[in-house]
Amino acid sequence: MLTVEDNKMLTQTGPGTPMGELFRRFWLPVMLSEEIPAADGPPKRLRIMSEDLIAFRDSNGEVGILDAYCPHRGAPLFFGRNEECGLRCVYHGWKFDVNGVCVDLPNSPEGETYKDKVSIKSYPGVDKGGVIWAYMGPKDKQPPLPELGFMSVPASHRYVWRMELECNYFQSMEGDIDSSHVNFLHSVLGDVRSNPQVRHRDADPDRLTGTVPQYVHLEDTEYGVGHVTVVNRGDGTQMVNTGSWLMPCFTLGSAAEGVGQQNIRVPIDDEHCQFYRIRHDIDAPLTEKELWECKHSNFVYPPLIPGTFTPTSNKHNDYQIDRVMQKNFNFTGIRSFSTQDTALIEDQRGAIMDRNNEHLVTSDNAIIQIRKRLLGLARDLMEGKEPPTTSNPNLYHMRSRRFNVPQGEDVLEEAVSYLAPAGS
Ligand code: FES
Ligand SMILES: [Fe+2]
Predict the structure, then answer these.
(1) Which ligand lies nearest to the CA atom of residue 183 in the structure?
(2) pLDDT band for position 383 (50/70/90)?
(3) How far apart are CA 285 and CA 62, in angstroms?
(4) Please, which pLDDT band fits residue 196 given cuts at 50, 70 and 90?
(5) Where do the domains of the chain lie, and which CATH numbers do they carry?
(6) Hey, how many other C-beta atoms are within 10 angstroms of the C-beta on 230?
């Protein structure tokens, strides 16, 4: 349970809010690289942490992230001409480069001198790891880019994807660190080997018949929180998973042995967020089978309405719940694994959950710990203490692990050793 004030602090990220200021100390993904694929291509609208912005790639391929509106008389730059290293407002022709400098002010005799006095809000943008990153904080506090595993591997080693959700970023992120929901929300009914909900994908039936996963180890670290879960499987083995929450909004787990899954939530505003789900293999290209699961199984990555980042099964069609499926095949009647999560998180008494009105139990320990950590970081920053990871991008160099051993074997010490950043 959180006080009303702490819940506000946790969930509000607009300019000037404590959590908004904390998030603005970090580089954050704001779109996929493919959304602005070409130099001088069409600009793209963006809303991040309640700020309306426009992103474009200039003639040199540099990324520009500017205020969505022109400083002259507030016209939308979305309709601008992206030409000769700058974005030109089509209302009266003012032109801005990727750094927000006004490089042409052609509609007035005093333009040549006045343009030096005009600028537009701009944020640094970088294309890395298949994602466009923005830094929206104070210039003198700009950190190096984090070194998340997927960012440094060749494109063949990763699958980068995003969608947009109609709820607060934290509500969505809490689902990742809520281990005890897995065997309920995502479970199937009856004999899993003959269940069409399992058969249509590369499922592991012994995993699905295992015990409810619980965190057996949670640890505060410099990068955030590291955790270990152990699940007893139906075949007599136990599956050990290590993962991490990296401040402020990155969670890392395993999709399969050797394949990391990095989930990232970026606030659009307080009631909407972007959700990135990025799979990567540090050592090898993703296999044909892994890529098929990502692109075509419609299971872990739900289909999106073409031209949007909105899932086809969404809040407005009750996630296409099928009550016959719910009676006979799976727990929810909702087809995609991801959509099962989305259906439950987009409306927890609304898009911003009231955490003053909840009843947590011990299986919610990770949620409690991460809330505490994030609130602590926001309070520290209010008192002038910068977050620890921003000066050390190596702290993001984490790998998740998944392995099976016979039940009863004590593997905690080995698992905990993986909670340190690689190479530290
Ligand atoms: S409003 Fe953009 S140039 Fe006038
Ligand atoms: Fe889930």
Answers:
(1) 2
(2) very high
(3) 28
(4) low
(5) 27-141 (2.102.10.10), 149-417 (3.90.380.10)
(6) 20
